Model the fold of this input.
Amino acid sequence: MSVKIIFVGDVMQDILISFKDQIAYGSDTQSQIKMQGGGSATNSACWAATQNVSVGLVARIGDDQTGKLIREGLIHPNLSLNLIETPNSRSGSCAILIDAQGERTMFPDPGANLFLSPDDVPTDWIKTAEIIHISAYSLLRKNTQNSIKEIILNAKQQNLKISIDVASSQPLIDNDGFNALSQLAPFDYLFANKDEAEVLGDISKIKLLCHNLILKQGSKESIWLSNNQELKDIPEKTKVVDSIGAGDAFAAGFLTSVIKKEPAANTLKIANNLGSHAVKISGARPF
Done:
């Protein structure tokens, strides 16, 4: 199947630990525990597949039972998979604490994701795709940094639009995020939330990294800044189950709308609608 968007990055098995009371360190805290698929790039790919756009996912799994579960959980008619099984490696996993307000704290173990290679991206996909979307987790991580750089440079040579989700504030802090991103800038699209933007610097500085800066601000208005326009949209109020995957869904809604050539104002609204849908459900993915 030909694909319109290629998603590259982590695929994880999430362990969701929801609790209502204060954590009783050194003792027991009552909780609800659920296993579900995760990984920023994979989450976005799944949400994009629900928007009637053909997409492809490039990621690494281990040769373990978790890898089999991950593959089985990613079956969708609009989603093509190139999940490379890495010998003698465990699949990535992430423990996620979710408090009473739906806020999440993550403890990732990348596992096989550390072995991502430029050769993992199918050449047939490059020929048909219009956008390649990469989670900055992979770009900032020392083990995969060079592979992602090569993937981006190859995609630019093939005239694909480059989309980056800067992923999380702490990895940006730990890995000199602005300078790491600037080496490959400008990107066509760059997604950041409030905390991530604060780490990268003021808006004028961040805009040096991209042609289109899209600021995700949860329940507050999202902002799309480009060279010739500034658009804003306020998401509808909704009850939050948890916030896992909301930013990934937002990016998926935005990019699939670009592929469909939606009017600019609609693009931001569709992105917010998909992000709002994500917070209504438990976990990071729609399937």
Notes: The longest strand covers residues 55-62. The radius of gyration is 18 Å.
